[in-house]
Amino acid sequence: MSLADKIAAAQAAEVECQRRREAIAQARAHLAAEVKRTATPGRIVLSGLALGFAVGFREPKAGPSLAGKVLGGPLFSMVLEAVLPGIVAGITAAAGLQEPNEDTEDAEEPADESEAGDDAETARGAA
User: Fold this and answer.
1) How far is the C-alpha of 15 from the C-alpha of 10, rounded, in Å?
2) Could you tell me if 70 and 76 are in contact, meaning their C-beta atoms sit under 8 angstroms apart?
3) pTM here?
């Protein structure tokens, strides 16, 4: 094989690799769009209920399972202690951003009323 043949083969392989990368990127984008389209809250809740109902019919094993040893033990406790404060902080921050600040609304209303009262007192004093 000559050098020109090797260069041509390498360029053809690069073109094929680029084509496959683009196909993978398109497939990934399509999958993400389909997941967003189909994963509605109602479907998620319904599937969780169905799976929970189905798992409830299964007979438990005689001995403790590996999941009980790992998830119920120190590993789960460690993960919970590490993750829970961040989750609570995120939920609290999101709730604070979504709800209007009641303090500023209450502070604006009396200011408007006191201005109206001041105007009335000024009118009485001028009369």
Assistant:
1) 9
2) yes
3) 0.36
Q: Which helix (H) or strand (E) holds 66?
A: helix 66-71
> Within 13 Å, how many C-alpha atoms sit on residue 15's CB side?
6
Cα dihedral: 65, 68, 71, 73 (round 10): -120
Q: CA 106 to CA 124: how far, in whole Å? A: 28
**Mean pLDDT highest for which of 52-56, 63-67, 76-80, 97-101?**
52-56
Distance CA(60)–CA(104), nearest Å, equals 56
Per-residue pLDDT tens for 9-36? Answer: 999 999 999 999 999 999 999 998 888 8
42 band by pLDDT with thresholds 50, 70 and 90 = confident
